[in-house]
């Protein structure tokens, strides 16, 4: 863990007070008054509190992701009650529903910033929603940190310094699948199902780039819209290609549909690769575990269904605190674990901040050096710099066997294997 040794400054009490997040009148808005934090924004943060806002599809076609904020809230409730908060500040986490609709996301972002006066937007879920909001948040100079989307633009763009991702970007994920096929199926014929937006196109583009110069070929592509009721027609068209690999680039609802359609079509039996964001046990279970044997994906955080972590201290803590602070939530749902991991990452970033201000958070998330988060897989750390806005770029392949995912191979650091992504 990287924790600043001097806070705002260990020598000047006024500077410490300035970092505390109160304006000169003791309110919750304003700017830091003195010290090296002078003039920086303290809206939404006081000596005793931090107010964060999250935007998720609690309803609509991507509502499965609504489990994520439950894990986040459980983590913050635990830290507030048992650890005194983050640097002595209790976290209030306000969650809004955008239904996976970009215009609604903009509306909710404005409400959180202008009415709720949050310190930061912590997690806006989805590439379309985050793309719709990041101009606004950057104009307002509000941190939009650890957004729940792996689009490569969060790490390569230089015009939006207040926005940063968290999870591995889709291009790096695509590179991992391409590398796997180069070894296991070097002459693979690949059919691709993808969501017709920046998310789907980012991963597909990364995969296409990664197989250039090889014998692996994309022989069929089918896209779908998030408003489509089903991807069954697309799956029938892809089956006609007789490809021996299916790359499934979907969100949970459509990922489950694609897996089910693949299982029903007994005349087509491709190696099925499903992207990480649709690889939750909640996606596979409705299809029937017997129908998803051998499906391949990748991960970077610990799976609560994997007995490898049964006696892991962080997993044991997670299970205990989920039961205590979110008793109605099933701790075996990986999206809850994702939420716990990203909330823990925010905690580490705030501890590392030199100034407890919006600018301090903005700078801290772009200066993470080998930060360990206990819910991430061993070997996966948070690493960023001013020129590298990708906190996590390591993943490990996994295959579904029996009733759970099994990790295989080594953790792949895509920075080292493929080089950094640049804008």
UniProtKB/TrEMBL annotation:
Pfam families: Peripla_BP_6. Keywords: Signal. It comes from the Bacteria. Residues 1-20 form the signal peptide. The keyword Cell cycle does not apply. InterPro entries: Leu-bd, Peripla_BP_I. Residues 49-401 form the Leucine-binding protein domain. Belongs to the leucine-binding protein family. This is Branched-chain amino acid transport system substrate-binding protein. It comes from Nonomuraea jiangxiensis.
């Amino acid at each position: 863990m990287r924790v600043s040794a001097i806070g705002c400054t260990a020598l000047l009490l006024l500077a410490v007070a300035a970092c505390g997040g109160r304006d000169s009148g003791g309110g919750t808005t304003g700017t830091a008054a003195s010290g090296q934090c002078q003039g920086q924004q303290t809206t939404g943060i006081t000596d005793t509190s931090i107010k964060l806002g999250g935007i998720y599809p609690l309803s609509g076609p991507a509502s499965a992701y609504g489990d994520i904020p439950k894990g986040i809230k459980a983590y913050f409730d635990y830290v507030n009650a048992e650890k005194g908060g983050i640097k002595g500040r209790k976290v209030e986490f306000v969650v809004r529903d955008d239904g996976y609709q970009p215009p609604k996301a903009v509306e909710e972002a404005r409400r959180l910033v202008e009415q709720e006066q949050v310190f930061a937007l912590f997690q806006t879920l989805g590439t379309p929603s985050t793309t719709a909001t990041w101009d606004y948040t950057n104009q307002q100079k509000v941190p939009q940190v650890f957004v729940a989307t792996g689009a490569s633009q969060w790490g390569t763009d230089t015009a939006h310094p207040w926005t940063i991702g968290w999870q591995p970007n889709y291009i790096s994920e695509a590179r991992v699948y391409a590398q796997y096929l180069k070894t296991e199926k070097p002459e693979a014929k690949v059919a691709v199902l993808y969501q017709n937006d920046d998310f789907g196109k980012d991963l597909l583009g990364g995969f296409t780039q990664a197989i250039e110069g090889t014998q692996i070929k994309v022989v069929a592509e089918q896209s779908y819209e998030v408003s489509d009721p089903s991807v069954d027609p697309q799956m029938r068209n892809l089956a006609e290609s007789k490809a021996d690999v299916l790359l499934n680039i979907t969100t949970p609802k459509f990922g489950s549909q694609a897996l089910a359609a693949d299982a029903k079509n007994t005349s087509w039996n491709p190696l099925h690769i499903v992207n990480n964001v649709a690889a939750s046990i909640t996606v596979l279970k409705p299809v029937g575990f017997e129908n998803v044997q051998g499906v391949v994906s990748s991960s970077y955080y610990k799976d609560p269904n994997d007995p490898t972590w049964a006696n892991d201290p962080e997993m044991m803590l997670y299970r205990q605190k989920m039961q205590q602070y979110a008793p109605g939530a099933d701790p075996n749902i990986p999206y809850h674990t994702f939420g716990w991991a990203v909330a823990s990452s925010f905690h580490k970033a705030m501890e590392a901040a030199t100034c407890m201000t919006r600018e301090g958070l903005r700078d801290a998330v772009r200066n993470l050096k080998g930060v360990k988060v206990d819910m991430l897989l061993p070997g996966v750390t948070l690493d960023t710099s001013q020129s590298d806005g990708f906190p996590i770029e390591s993943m490990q392949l996994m295959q579904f066997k029996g009733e759970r995912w099994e990790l295989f191979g080594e953790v792949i650091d895509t920075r080292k294997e493929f080089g950094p992504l640049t804008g």
